[in-house]
């Protein structure tokens, strides 16, 4: 059996794909450790994983530390790279699996000749433009982290997105396995709108959520709102027919949902589509993948996109269309069928295993530094 070291960061939706792969590897008899931000230790150890405490990495907590400049520093953090090498010196691993945003860790692994895979948990289209092609990519290059060389040097780039909405670019070491999206059979019931924005600490979410709640007035549907850890449910003014909770699990709400409102995070959007639910995307960050995700869903006919500064009327018109026009449900069901036909966790775990057992793994061998 093999040993794996996952390098992650406290970003919310980036963590479930990593933990799902890790659980599958453990189920197959392998050992898995996680290196991440200190704010992640409690959740990861509670999930049964060994956590390597960082000593050199920048401190970061997604519930309170979000600023564009802060994010630039986190993704380029050489301290996480030092912690990676220290973790391997203390206990070697057969393969390191690095989150696709952690370029400081990737650079350290590449320069040290460590065999590593990159876990890509967002649209490849957004990754190429928003990360590598935008201010983030420029910042990484100015810090001499050579992001493209880091990606080219990976033994495998595991892309966990759906080809129907995010066609993979040509790359010899890239394997697209589909999205992580658990689903349950549909449940019949009254029309229901599920509203949930990010667990990440984006500014202004309370105001956006309030306008969304107000927009549902007069619509023929019950409304379930999940505020997440950064918005106090008491700060929202609800009305009869609207339930506001701190947390609602997708498994409890999406099987009976008629429409989902999300910020366009990859995980929540795919979860909605996996349940054949049309999606209203309200992007919260133009530098993340939210806008690209929203456009792709709109192009597929499976949802609508309204800017975060949209009015109550804009939100109401979009939600009304999702509830009343059968074409949105039909398009969402087509994508849902495609998602359910994938086995992202099983195929992804097999690809990672193949890199450690001498079998012919997808992609090409890691380049030497």
UniProtKB/TrEMBL annotation:
Pfam families: EryCIII-like_C. Residues 239-338 form the Erythromycin biosynthesis protein CIII-like C-terminal domain. CDD domains: GT1_Gtf-like (cd03784). SUPFAM superfamilies: UDP-Glycosyltransferase/glycogen phosphorylase (SSF53756). Gene3D superfamilies: Glycogen Phosphorylase B. InterPro entries: EryCIII-like_C, Glycosyltransferase_28, UDP_glucos_trans. This is Glycosyltransferase.
């Amino acid at each position: 059996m093999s040993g794996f070291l996952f390098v992650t960061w406290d970003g919310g939706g980036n963590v479930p794909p990593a933990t799902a792969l890790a659980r599958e590897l453990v189920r197959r008899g392998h050992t898995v450790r996680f290196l991440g931000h200190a704010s992640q230790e409690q959740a990861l150890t509670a999930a049964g994983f060994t956590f390597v405490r960082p000593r050199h990495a920048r401190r970061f907590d997604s519930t309170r530390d979000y600023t564009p400049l802060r994010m630039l520093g986190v993704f380029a953090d050489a301290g996480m790279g030092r912690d990676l090498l220290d973790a391997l010196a203390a206990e070697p691993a057969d393969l390191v699996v690095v989150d696709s945003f952690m370029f400081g860790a990737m650079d350290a692994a590449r320069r040290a000749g460590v065999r590593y895979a990159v876990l890509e948990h967002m649209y490849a289209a957004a990754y190429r433009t928003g990360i590598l092609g935008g201010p983030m990519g420029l910042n990484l290059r100015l810090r001499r982290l050579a992001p493209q060389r880091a990606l080219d040097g990976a033994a495998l780039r595991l892309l966990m997105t759906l080809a129907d909405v995010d066609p993979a670019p040509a790359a010899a070491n890239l394997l697209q396995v589909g999205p992580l999206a658990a689903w349950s059979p549909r449940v019949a019931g009254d029309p229901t709108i599920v509203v949930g924005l990010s667990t990440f600490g984006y500014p202004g979410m309370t105001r956006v959520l309030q306008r969304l709640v107000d927009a549902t007035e007069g619509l023929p549907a019950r409304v379930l709102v999940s505020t997440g850890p950064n918005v106090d449910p008491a700060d929202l003014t609800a009305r009869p027919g609207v339930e506001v909770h701190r947390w609602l699990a997708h498994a409890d709400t999406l099987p009976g949902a008629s429409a989902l409102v999300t910020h366009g995070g990859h995980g929540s959007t795919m979860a909605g589509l996996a349940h054949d639910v049309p999606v209203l995307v309200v992007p919260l960050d133009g530098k993340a993948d939210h806008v690209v995700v929203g456009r792709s869903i709109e192009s597929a006919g499976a949802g609508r996109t309204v800017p975060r500064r949209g009015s109550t009327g804009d939100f109401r018109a979009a939600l009304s269309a999702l509830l009343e026009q059968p074409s949105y449900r039909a398009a969402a069901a087509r994508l849902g069928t495609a998602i359910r036909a994938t086995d992202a966790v099983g195929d992804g775990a097999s690809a990672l295993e193949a890199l450690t057992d001498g079998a012919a793994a997808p992609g090409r061998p890691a380049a030497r530094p």
